[in-house]
TrEMBL record:
Family: Belongs to the P-Pant transferase superfamily. Gsp/Sfp/HetI/AcpT family.
An MF annotation (GO) of this entry: transferase activity
Keyword field contains Lyase: no
Keyword presence, Methyltransferase: no
Pfam family, one: ACPS
Keywords: Transferase
Span of domain 4'-phosphopantetheinyl transferase: 94-196
Protein name, UniProt field: 4'-phosphopantetheinyl transferase superfamily protein
Top-level taxon in the UniProt lineage: Bacteria
SUPFAM superfamilies: 4'-phosphopantetheinyl transferase
Amino acid sequence: MRTTLGHDVAGIAAGLSMDTIHVWLLNYRREQRRAPLRALLGAYLGLLPDDVVLVDDEYGRPELTEPWNRFLQFNWSHSVDKAIIVVAHGVTPGIDIERIRPRPRAMQLAERFFHREEAAALAAVDESQRERTFLELWTGKEAVLKALGRGLAFGLNRLRLTMEPVPHLHWLDGDDASQWQLHRLDPDTDHVASVAWRGSSRSIDMWTLADRD
């Protein structure tokens, strides 16, 4: 992962192609709301942040307004003090990030909401790794569902993932899972993240956006 300053983003944005996916990790405070997202998208579109207009679709996913939504697709997620943003041309990406922390109910949540084969696989994981594996499954499923445009309301049990040796979408209700790309991200030592999209394989370039002094 590379670190860059805000004034360098426009140069990096020019390198976004139909063969690449750009992912950005940045510090985040909830009171900032969507300001960091608009600022980053503005750098890609050549717009001032205040000129970037976002609207929510029927499932709550933010989108750019016309005509900008024809040129750039994105998704974002935040957890505690970090946000992660994915930007692409020609595909609709989904991304999710979660902070690593104790989750004593992870197995109960998996048994209740995940596909039964995922829950069984999670139960077989060494207890010392179970919470991280749970988060890898959770962020992977969220990323796919956000790329699908539906979110958690679609149902976490309507898709099945495996995480080892690499993340893989085996089944998605009503769709061809073989057409999907799913990748585990390693943003830092304190977070787990995943990105997904429907379409051909692309390279993923990832940066940390440094705070300005």
